Amino acid sequence: MTKIYNLKNLKPGDRLVLPKSNLRLVQHHAIYIGNDAYGNRQYIENYIGKGVQRVDENYLFRDGYHLTRVEPFIGNAFQRRLAVNRAVALIGTQYDLVNFNCEHYANAVQYGKQFSNQVGNGILATVLLAVIGIGFSK
């Protein structure tokens, strides 16, 4: 069952999580920062090859309208404003798959800490596969 999200209910600092493939094993993270002067929703994402950049909704959903989930920002209005300021301040920062990917960026904005569960899980899976491979080779 696919959940329908009403993007009109977004508040600045909320995170959108979008699948990068049909398998949904890898997710893309973007932060909603509010509407522009024309009422168009604006987002900031950290994208491979481009780094942290401001994008509009058409660009964010360029591969079709697919959302895995929306993670609301948790905090008061002042904290929300600080999160949006962090989001904007990081524009131009280069993308790095292991050290500063889209999930690192979104966590830095929402929690003030850079981390990526996807990278951690990927490293753990690689180590486990290596251990299993070594075990079977003996």
UniProtKB/TrEMBL annotation:
The keyword Cytoplasm does not apply. Keywords: Acyltransferase, Hydrolase, Lipid metabolism, Membrane, Transferase, Transmembrane, Transmembrane helix. GO terms for cellular component: cytoplasm. Coiled coil: none annotated. Residues 18-118 form the LRAT domain. One of its GO terms (molecular function) is phospholipase A2 activity. The chain crosses the membrane at residues 119-137. InterPro entries: H-rev107_PLA/AT (IPR051496), LRAT_dom (IPR007053). GO terms for biological process: N-acylphosphatidylethanolamine metabolic process. It holds the Pfam family LRAT. The keyword Transferase applies. PANTHER family: HRAS-LIKE SUPPRESSOR - RELATED, LRAT DOMAIN-CONTAINING PROTEIN. This is Lecithin retinol acyltransferase family protein. It comes from Chryseobacterium manosquense. The lineage of its organism: Bacteria, Pseudomonadati, Bacteroidota, Flavobacteriia, Flavobacteriales.
